Amino acid sequence: MLASPLMQRALVVAVLVGIAAPVMGTYLVQRRLALLGDGLGHMALTGVAVGWLVGNAANLTPHDALAVPGAVVAAVIGSVIIEVVRAKGRTSGDVALALLFYGGIAGGVVLIGLAGGTTANLTGYLFGSISTVTTLDLWLTVVLAVVILGVGLGLRPALFSLSHDEEFARASGLPVRLLNITVAVMAALTVSVAMRVVGVLLVSAVMIVPVATAQLLTRSFRMTMALAMVIGVAVSVVGLSLTYTYPLSPGATIVILAIATYAVVSVVRPLLPRARRGGDPHPDVEDDVELEVAR
Length: 295
Prior knowledge:
There is one protein chain. By secondary structure, the chain is an all-alpha fold. The protein contains twelve helices and no strands. Helix 1 runs parallel beside helix 6, helix 1 packs across helix 10 and helix 1 packs antiparallel against helix 11 (221-245). The protein is globular and about 60 Å long. InterPro entries: ABC_BtuC-like, ABC_TroCD.
């Protein structure tokens, strides 16, 4: 399996998605925006069709050479729009998400028709096509994953404060509006990265389900993020390996593995010994006072 260049590229992309997606998923779960990835995924589908339309007009080969870059641009624009709408407060967050759902998928279908294609050309983007990842897709995924991890891990203290209590973050002097847009844009980039692996219809699963599983086993924000990254990589690599042997859809297999892991952990967790109480109640916060231990 590892001797195939196609599987080498697919495995690298699967590992990067497994690491990067749960990082931003942790912030979305904490902020109760678990469905944001779905809305951005539908918006990315319009970007795929726009990229296809531009590639066709420019006579590029293949015609979908600009599909992924188009998805990145569309998802980022959609993330900024939904954050501005949410901040203005004139439309509720779920209504804004619904508009992205309907408008994104309808725009994709209409534009792919104008580009001379059919809805069948969108199937690989709807359900994922990791086995057809090109070298350009690989490098684009590497760059986006580095950006997502750099922002998601580098700004973790500020983003944690924002996700936990937005009013506290504002009172602390943090640039709340800028951080909100940053989270939305990073979520859009994560959707664009994961789109090739599981498709826009299942993209939220690799962002949210590993985090939900990790929350069953951990008590701190930092440990939840770390364990979610481990689970994300494990289900992505195992799912991809299974599809090399059996004729299964890679994206759907990865998502089913993630959900099965959540179900098993949910059943087993009550049987595990509970963590001893009395430890540090805020393990993510550095101690400002150190007490001398009595000898």
